[in-house]
From TrEMBL:
Organism: Companilactobacillus pabuli
Name of the protein described by the UniProt record: Uncharacterized protein
Entry superkingdom: Bacteria
Upper lineage: Bacteria, Bacillati, Bacillota, Bacilli, Lactobacillales
Length: 65
């Protein structure tokens, strides 16, 4: 194998490795986006429940007066 052939072989190998790395990073990004989406959904639900609790608590405090 000459130096030119070796260089071409190494370039192809590196290109293949880079494609694998890019695919793994892309998959990881989708995974992270799913986690963020789930957390946002949970956060909205908690906010709604807290808001409802605050309203009930305010109504109860008015009745005590």
């Amino acid at each position: 194998m000459t130096d030119d052939n070796l260089a071409v072989y190494q370039m192809r190998e590196n290109r293949y490795k880079n494609k694998e790395i890019a695919a793994a990073m892309h998959k990881e990004l989708f995974y992270i986006e799913d986690i963020i989406r789930q957390n946002n959904r949970i956060g909205k639900k908690l906010y709604r429940e807290d808001d409802e609790w605050q309203r009930l608590n305010a109504r109860r405090n008015k009745q005590r007066r």
